[in-house]
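Q: what sequence does this backbone want?
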């Protein structure tokens, strides 16, 4: 009887889809690549990619760095946390580069590749309402 019960338990576990088991994935903005498998040694680059590939119930460990992205949580019950208390910043702010002098002390930059409209610009961490 004990052997039969063991076989039933093993069969049941093997019959479950792999995705029902919670797993962990890792994100590293500096050393990651969204083509990786999300393991600690081969982390994703973006939090969004980790959320897209991790099923419900798993944990996304975020390595140190600044993540400039909008994140749409793909599945319920995902947990987002920093890895081993590393310092992580998630921000919707983008860095604007390649400023050029327009005229009379007025500078301009190309915003064509940004996803959102700008309502504020910060210069050297100071707010400049426009």
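A:
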């Amino acid at each position: 009887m004990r052997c039969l019960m063991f076989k039933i338990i093993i069969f049941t576990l093997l019959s479950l889809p792999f995705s029902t088991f919670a797993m962990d994935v890792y994100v590293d903005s500096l050393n990651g690549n969204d083509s990786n498998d999300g393991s600690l040694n081969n982390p994703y680059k973006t939090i969004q990619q980790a959320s897209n590939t991790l099923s419900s119930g798993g944990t996304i460990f975020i390595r140190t760095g600044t993540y400039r992205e909008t994140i749409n949580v793909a599945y319920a019950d995902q947990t987002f946390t920093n890895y081993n208390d590393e310092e992580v910043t998630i921000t919707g702010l983008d860095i604007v580069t390649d400023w050029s002098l327009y005229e009379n002390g007025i500078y301009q930059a190309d915003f064509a590749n940004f996803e959102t409209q700008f309502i504020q610009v910060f210069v050297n961490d100071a707010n400049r309402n426009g």
